[in-house]
User: Which sequence fits this backbone?
């Protein structure tokens, strides 16, 4: 009989113990920075946060009258990176989020004739740094950067997709 009473007591207290542990651990987003480089080594997301996946964004034309499919209509890799990150920033803003809420970024770069087929990582970093090496952004995302053969438009050099987190309400 004593065993049954202890077992019932354990079963009754288990949800309380688990609930308290979950509530304490789930509300934060923990980031481990990479020293000397503007990305996070890792990002840990608590269970009560909302995760938002943004589809890949590509550059828009510099001028509406610019011809389609030519590099000059979209700019170089740095200009395209800035253009795409501004779009991401605007989309996040519409959702009540900022670039600080981005936890993961995947970057797809194309090497064109102007770079002899090699992605312009320096140009990308010049644009990226305008968003992630400032006082405005204190939380760095985990990030992967890939060179791909082509994007849908032959003049695009950059596509970026991000995952953001909406912190749980406390």
Assistant:
């Amino acid at each position: 009989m004593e065993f049954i009473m202890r077992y019932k007591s354990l079963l009754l207290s288990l949800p309380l113990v688990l609930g308290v542990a979950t509530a304490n651990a789930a509300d934060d987003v923990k980031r481990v920075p990479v020293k000397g480089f503007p990305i996070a080594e890792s990002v840990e997301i608590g269970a009560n946060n909302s995760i938002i996946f943004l589809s890949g964004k590509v550059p828009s034309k510099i001028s509406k009258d610019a011809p389609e499919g030519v590099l000059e209509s979209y700019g170089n890799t740095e200009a395209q990176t800035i253009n795409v990150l501004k779009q991401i920033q605007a989309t996040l803003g519409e959702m009540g989020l900022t670039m600080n809420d981005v936890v993961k970024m995947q970057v797809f770069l194309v090497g064109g004739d102007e770079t002899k087929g090699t992605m312009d990582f320096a140009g990308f970093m010049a644009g990226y740094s305008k968003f992630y090496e400032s006082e405005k952004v204190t939380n760095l995302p985990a990030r992967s950067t890939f060179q791909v053969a082509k994007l849908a438009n032959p003049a695009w050099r950059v596509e970026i997709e991000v995952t953001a987190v909406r912190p749980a309400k406390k």
Observations:
- Residues 76 and 157 are 8 Å apart (CA to CA).
